[in-house]
Write a structure and sequence with these properties.
By secondary structure, the chain is of the alpha+beta class. Helix content is 35%, strand content 24%.
Length: 683
């Protein structure tokens, strides 16, 4: 009886076990590869035209009877081939990438494999059949060799049955789509490179034919590129533009296939290196390239599933191949995409001027090639911005140190002073511009809200005052506590520019939360002096308080005998003889002569218009105001919502002019589209 040489059972136990469908199908892929080799040996240059491989999956829901049949019309298992089959680690097909261990995977995966092969020997047709498995007395058993009477085509049928009780039983595919996907992916290089005969894969009655299934996704074949790498020797790139679905089941869009002996061993996503989103005709395709060379052929493992070099080596090889492809295969797409990226970066710097610490082209060179949106730019430029800020601080510090040490200002120091001053001015303008743009964004939101209406109980209505209150200042907070998890931010500058740096305020908070008072009444907004009496080490009494009441836009009537001045009088009466509790728990008294600045943000319509008819027109033109009298000192002013927004816009424009900037020259980046030619590659 013919015996397979070597300790086969022990060798099989040491084979790597599958962890996914692609690994689980390796025994089948080996059978298909053997069939392809046999077809090329039988038909030579005509192999693609007349060669055929059939793969049929059946009874796939039952691991014990899971069956795969692989058949070909190749040369068959001639004596020399069978001798190689019976020898582990044979070099019979080493020039084609064969490692002589593929059929050992059959032993690992299946309970039994039946091989039937017809071949010619001295002009006579012969049939060789045998069983192959670990359950028999020897791996090869029930062997017969006999003459074939009549006419029959040469070829081999390999029937693999019954998944063994190991990881293969959970790794084999159970669906047609997954099976076809992995066959197309595994043999993609073979099909694209024209090194595969026709193959039909049938799964429980459903069929797909290759290479038609792959060719249907091919949009363009690029000219082959050969180049010599200093580290990897002579390499060849065969490149293709595919429909996006060619990468639908792969990680990423663009792929580099590392090929050994015409077969894909490893596929690597190259989106981050290529950058371009789409390539080829009409800018709708994805890029696939097959790299081959002796460096890869000499370093593939015995199962032809991995290369035996480190990941760093694979990364270097991939990067070098992609750089050559960008320069010599798809340069137009790359140039178009870089133009698009530059436009997006300029748009980003317009919105966030503090990042404009270098020219746009220089900044683009500091970003990954696939960065083409604001978040990606920010993420990659933040480290560079930090270093630029540090260098500027070190320059200023160096100038200061020399000024304190040198008795005279030397010419080189004078130049350093000028440089430091210029850099400080540029940075100040960038920071100011970013602050102004943020303010403009808030103004535009408020303006948009004022122009919107909502449907409430079947009729049109404006937004409630809470919507605007929340936009100007967060609600249900008492600020000023330095021990807070994070500072409370606000946009009180919308009311008055002097409130921009305000630190101490209570917004929609109960009186008992910040006053020496047990009342539950809520005050819309109270802002008090930052300097005096707030736990900052001074004993001075609080001398100035701002009170704000928000009313719903376009509100015309109020309940009962409500009057706006009466509501403010009640607040001021509570405050005049009270005490404010600072963040450290100290109680700070209000001065007897405390000055109140009361704002009512509302539209001058209905009841409020009636209540303020005797008031003065405000100097700013924002509404009506009156002086407080009697027990209270200060002013009370009604500010109309639309005038609040208008005034804020004017003040913000003044900031721009102070910085020698204008939206007219920069462009309105917030609420208008940038008109620029977008590359097809970026779509």
């Amino acid at each position: 009886m013919t015996q397979l040489v070597g300790d086969v059972a022990n060798r099989v136990r040491r084979l790597p076990k599958p962890s996914n469908i692609a690994d689980g199908l390796q025994p089948v892929f080996e059978a298909v590869s053997n069939g392809m080799h046999a077809i090329f040996d039988q038909f030579g240059e005509n192999a693609q035209e007349v060669g055929q491989v059939f793969v049929d999956f059946s009874d796939t829901r039952n691991a014990g009877s899971y069956t795969i049949v692989v058949s070909d019309n190749g040369v068959g298992l001639e004596d020399e081939r069978f001798a190689a089959f019976c020898t582990t680690d044979t070099d019979y097909k080493i020039e084609r990438g064969g490692k002589g261990v593929g059929r050992l995977l059959w032993l690992d995966a299946f309970s039994k494999t039946r091989v039937v092969s017809i071949y010619r020997k001295n002009g006579q047709l012969m049939r060789r059949s045998f069983d192959f498995g670990l359950s028999g007395p020897e791996p090869i058993y029930n062997e017969t060799v006999e003459e074939v009477v009549g006419v029959a085509p040469t070829g081999t049928i390999v029937t693999m049955t019954g998944l063994r009780s190991n990881s293969y039983s959970s790794a084999m595919p159970l669906q047609f789509a997954a099976t076809i996907k992995h066959f197309g992916s595994h043999f993609l290089a073979d099909f694209l490179l024209g090194k595969a005969p026709e193959m039909t894969v049938t799964f429980e009655g459903k069929s797909a034919t290759f290479p038609e299934s792959v060719n249907d996704m091919l949009l363009e074949t690029k000219p082959a590129l050969e180049f010599t790498s200093e580290k990897f020797g002579r390499l060849k790139l065969d490149s293709y533009v595919m429909k996006p679905q060619a990468s639908a089941d792969l990680d990423g869009s663009h792929q580099l296939h590392l090929v050994s002996s015409g077969r894909t061993v490893q596929t690597r996503k190259v989106d981050g290196l290529l950058g371009v989103k789409r390539v080829g005709p009409d800018g709708v395709g994805v890029f696939h390239a097959c790299v081959s060379g002796s460096f890869l052929d000499e370093r593939v493992n015995q199962e032809r599933t991995q290369f035996n070099f480190a990941e760093k080596t694979a990364e270097e090889l991939t990067k070098e191949c992609v750089e050559n492809a960008k320069k010599k295969i798809i340069p137009d797409e790359v140039d178009s995409y870089e133009t698009y990226r530059l436009e997006q970066l300029e748009d980003f710097v317009d919105l966030y001027p503090s990042f404009g610490f270098e020219s746009s082209k220089a900044l683009l060179g500091k970003t990954p090639v696939n960065a083409d949106n604001h978040e990606a730019f920010a993420k990659s430029l933040i480290p560079h911005k930090i270093r630029a800020d540090r260098d500027r601080r070190e320059l200023v510090q160096s100038v200061l140190e020399r000024l304190t040490k040198d008795e005279e200002i030397q010419p080189d120091l004078a130049r350093e002073i000028q440089l430091a001053a210029a850099e400080a001015t540029k940075d100040e303008n960038r920071q100011l511009m970013e602050y102004i743009l943020r303010r403009k964004f808030i103004i535009e939101i408020m303006q948009a809200l004022l122009g919107k209406v909502r449907i409430l109980k079947g009729r049109l209505d404006t937004h409630l005052e809470d919507t605007f209150h929340q936009l100007i200042c967060p609600m249900r907070v008492v600020s000023g506590n330095p021990a807070g998890v994070e500072p409370v931010t606000h946009d009180l500058w919308l009311l008055d520019e002097r409130l921009a740096p305000a630190t101490y305020f209570a917004s929609d908070a109960m009186a008992k939360d910040f006053l020496d008072d047990d009342g539950s009444e809520r005050i819309d907004l109270m802002v008090w002096d930052k300097v005096h009496g707030l736990g900052l080490g001074t004993e001075d009494k609080l001398e100035r308080v701002i009170l704000v009441e928000f009313k719903k836009p376009e509100r015309t009537s109020y309940k009962g005998d409500y009057a706006i001045n009466r509501q403010m009088n009640r607040y001021m009466d509570k405050l005049k003889d009270g005490k404010i509790r600072s963040y450290n728990g100290d109680l700070i008294e209000l001065s007897k002569d405390v000055v109140f600045h009361c704002y009512i943000v509302a539209d001058l319509v209905g009841d409020i218009k009636t209540d303020t008819q005797s008031w003065h027109d405000s100097p700013s033109g924002r509404g009506k105001f009156t002086y407080l009298g009697g027990e209270f000192r200060g002013t009370m002013e009604v500010v109309e919502w639309k005038e609040l927004v208008r005034d804020a816009k004017v003040r913000n424009q003044n900031f721009l002019e102070a910085a020698s900037l204008s939206f007219a020259s920069k462009g309105d980046r917030l609420f208008s589209d940038r008109s620029s030619a977008s590359s097809q590659a970026a779509e």
